[in-house]
């Protein structure tokens, strides 16, 4: 079956553009080919990109048996391992997803709310008036502490600190457009010693694995069923034959949770802080809404605020952390908007392009939270966490954390952008993130209802 038109340049050059400038690659091809086009990448093959909501709906609501998706995520295997939920398909994927669902929903949200507030305050307490800090470093610290507590029940200790530092280093080793190439070009995955990019990554991963396996062994030997962290849940789980998860299965799921539950939320929080400082009217409206709750409001009251919700949704719309959903690989044949696709065709709803459709979001490159107050979008028009049986497990926790941390920082601190030049999104591994140039200066604390300070710090 003939695939839709797409760029005719060599696959190696397309892959280079996709890695180095993913936004430019998508926007250029959307302008030229419209709602659907076929990308051809050297190491991944042909992938059909879709941005029309009807196409997105048809793919995301299809019977899960129509596609494989896990094997389409092989690019992540070096990070998460081949036992990761992200790489599973069929019944095994369904079973493990069901197992991991409860900790991210329901009553656990109340516990996480208190944890997020406490950790955000701890991190903010390190900021000093007159200090300029890298925003992603601060947001990474918040989200890493939260996810380590949720996954391991850890909040202190030598192993906790070492896991926190190593996980950050592992992610940073593929955290720029240049080093992200290691994931996309297998030819670069050569261990030429600790000084080489891939060699450094392999050694950092080995150190992290050593810590994780030590934690798994100790917790397995001294299993305490009364604990509520995710590792305890996984250690207690049994398959149909009554067998527990192996150490390697546990390791891969733990790394997956640490990666998905930390990196993505840290990026979204960094963007939310950027927009709230870049646009004074957004900051003022947020503060007014938050101030009306009074002092020490309940976390559940904060997350229900309509303008805060709109700001967070617009943050995830304009620069979604994930550029595309997990690609679906057709198992036999599948039809999208009247066009048939044969077995082994890769189909990818494109989150970024759907979120920038003029017919859905007028002036799509402008940050306008009000659009989410004026209209309710379907899950095929706004889908920052993907959809279907591959929708992000931690979506509820991620939004909860994004709202609470944004609210606390914006309401309690006067911050400013030391550099007013626009911050552009760049590739960070398989995600889209603000460039490392994003920094904020701390001007001082703010009391509820107080107007921003007039005195700026010395340049």
Report on this structure:
The chain has 459 residues and is an alpha+beta fold. It has one domain: Cytochrome P450 (Cytochrome p450). Helices cover 48% and strands 11% of the residues. The protein contains 18 helices and 12 strands. It has a 5-stranded mixed β-sheet with strand order 1-2-8-5-3. α6 (108-124) packs antiparallel against α7 and α10 (197-221) crosses α12 (247-278). The N and C termini lie far apart (62 Å).
In short:
The chain is α+β, with helices and mostly antiparallel strands and 459 residues long. The protein is 48% helix and 11% strand.
Could you give the topology of this structure?
Elements (H helix, E strand, L loop, with lengths): L10 H10 L1 H12 L2 E6 L3 E6 L2 H8 L6 E2 L8 H4 L9 H11 L7 H17 L7 E3 H18 L5 H15 L8 H4 L12 H25 L8 H7 L10 H32 L1 H12 L7 H5 L2 H13 L9 E3 L2 E4 L2 E4 L3 E4 L1 H4 L16 H4 L20 H18 E4 L8 E4 L2 E4 L4 E7 L14
Parallel strand pairs: 2-8
Antiparallel strand pairs: 1-2, 3-5, 4-12, 5-8, 6-7, 9-12, 10-11
Order of helices and strands: HHEEHEHHHEHHHHHHHHHEEEEHHHEEEE
Superfamily at the CATH H level? Cytochrome P450
Mean pLDDT: 90
Structural class: alpha+beta
Instruction: Characterize the main sheet.
Output: 5 strands, mixed
How many β-strand runs? 12
Distance between the termini: 62 Å
Low-confidence stretches: 452-459
Specify the helix fraction band. 40-55%
| Percent in strands | 5-15%
So what's the oligomer here?
single chain
CATH domain class: Mainly Alpha
Widest sheet: strand ordering: 1-2-8-5-3
């Amino acid at each position: 079956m003939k695939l839709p038109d797409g760029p005719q340049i060599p696959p190696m050059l397309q892959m280079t553009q996709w890695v180095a400038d993913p936004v430019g690659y998508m926007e250029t091809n959307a302008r030229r080919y419209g709602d659907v086009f076929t990308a051809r990448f050297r190491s991944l093959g042909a992938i059909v990109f879709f941005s029309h909501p009807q196409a997105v709906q048809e793919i995301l609501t299809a019977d899960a048996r129509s596609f494989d998706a896990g094997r389409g995520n092989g690019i992540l295997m070096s990070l998460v391992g081949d036992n990761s939920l992200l790489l599973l398909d069929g019944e095994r994927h369904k079973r493990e997803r069901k197992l991991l669902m409860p900790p991210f929903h329901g009553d656990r949200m109340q516990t996480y709310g208190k944890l997020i507030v406490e950790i955000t305050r701890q991190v903010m307490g390190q900021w000093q008036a007159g200090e300029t800090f890298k925003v992603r470093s601060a947001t990474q610290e918040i989200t890493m502490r939260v996810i380590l507590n949720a996954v391991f029940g850890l909040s202190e200790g030598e192993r906790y600190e070492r896991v926190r530092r190593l996980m950050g280093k592992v992610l940073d080793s593929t955290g720029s457009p240049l080093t992200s190439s290691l994931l996309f070009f297998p030819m670069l995955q050569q261990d030429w010693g600790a000084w080489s990019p891939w060699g450094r990554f392999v050694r950092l991963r080995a150190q992290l694995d050593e810590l994780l396996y030590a934690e798994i062994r100790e917790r397995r030997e001294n299993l305490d069923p009364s604990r509520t962290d995710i590792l305890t849940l996984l250690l207690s789980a049994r398959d149909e034959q009554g067998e527990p998860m192996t150490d390697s299965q546990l390791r891969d799921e733990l790394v997956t949770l640490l990666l998905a539950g930390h990196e993505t939320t840290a990026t979204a929080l960094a963007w939310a802080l950027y927009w709230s400082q870049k646009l004074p009217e957004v900051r003022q409206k947020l503060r007014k809404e938050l101030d009306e709750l009074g002092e020490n409001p309940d976390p559940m009251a904060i997350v229900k605020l309509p303008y805060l919700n709109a700001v967070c949704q617009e943050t995830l719309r304009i620069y979604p952390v994930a550029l595309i959903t997990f690609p679906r690989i057709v198992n036999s044949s599948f039809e999208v908007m009247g066009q048939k696709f044969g077995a082994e065709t890769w189909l990818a709803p494109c989150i970024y392009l759907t979120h920038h459709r003029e017919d859905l979001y007028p002036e799509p490159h402008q940050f306008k939270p009000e659009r989410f107050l004026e209209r309710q979008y379907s899950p095929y028009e706004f889908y920052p966490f993907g959809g279907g049986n591959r929708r992000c497990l931690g979506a509820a926790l991620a939004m909860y954390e994004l709202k609470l941390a944004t609210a606390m920082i914006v309401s309690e601190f006067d911050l400013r952008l030391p550099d007013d030049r626009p911050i552009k999104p760049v590739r960070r591994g398989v995600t889209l993130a603000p460039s490392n140039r994003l920094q904020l200066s701390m001007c001082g604390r703010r009391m509820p209802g107080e107007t921003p300070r007039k005195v700026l710090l010395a340049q």
